[in-house]
Specification:
The chain is mostly beta strands. Helix content is 0%, strand content 46%. Keywords: Disulfide bond, Glycoprotein.
């Protein structure tokens, strides 16, 4: 008979995140499949566990140089590698059984794609740079804050403060709710 599967959500990775090698796991009691997106000219070189994959009907993605194909691993637990020797490709893993379904992006085991800033979003006054082969956000500028004197302080912004007595004073500290900023405080004690 025909099975009925529940819907599931799946992230679709951009072409800039395609890899040359993926690891996937089949799930117990599910019909396990992968959907492969590859440059049409490279589809014949995709392998599964170091063997050429067969029985895949490749379909051209209109307006692109890519094709897609579905490959089945059957039912049950299994571990597989899907690879291409030279060309990055995309892979989605999905499966279903009666009234259940799952789906996920493939787990990249080797990336041949050029690192790209399109995969992250930086805050205001930050720009993306590639560092150690990964995109990172860096401040567009930096400033030095200073205070000098005791007990009459003069600060970087031209202000004067008189702190009399033996108290501890907070000169600067982080405030707000942005947990991605490093927490710090600078205190002075007369």
């Amino acid at each position: 008979g025909k099975s009925t599967y529940d819907p599931f959500l799946i992230n679709i990775p951009p072409v800039t995140n395609y890899c040359r090698s993926y690891h996937i796991d089949g799930v117990e009691e599910f019909e396990n499949h992968v959907l492969i997106m590859v440059k049409s000219s490279e589809s014949s070189r995709i392998t599964s566990d170091q063997r050429a994959i067969g029985n895949v009907q490749w379909r051209q993605i209109p307006g692109t140089e890519y094709s897609w194909g579905e490959y089945s691993f059957g039912i049950g637990n299994s571990a597989h590698s899907i690879e291409h020797p030279t060309s990055p490709f995309g892979l989605l893993s999905f499966g279903g059984n009666d009234h259940s379904g799952y789906g996920s992006s493939g787990v990249c085991t080797y990336s041949n794609s050029t690192p790209s800033c399109s995969t992250i979003q930086c805050r205001k006054k930050e720009t993306c740079q590639i560092a150690d082969g990964r995109p990172v956000c860096v401040a567009e500028s930096e400033s030095n804050c200073w205070a000098q004197g005791d007990p009459h302080y003069h600060t970087f912004d031209g202000r004067n403060f008189d702190f009399m007595g033996t108290c501890t004073y907070t000169i600067a500290k982080t405030c707000g709710s942005d947990s991605t900023l490093p927490s710090f405080s600078v205190k002075a004690k007369n």
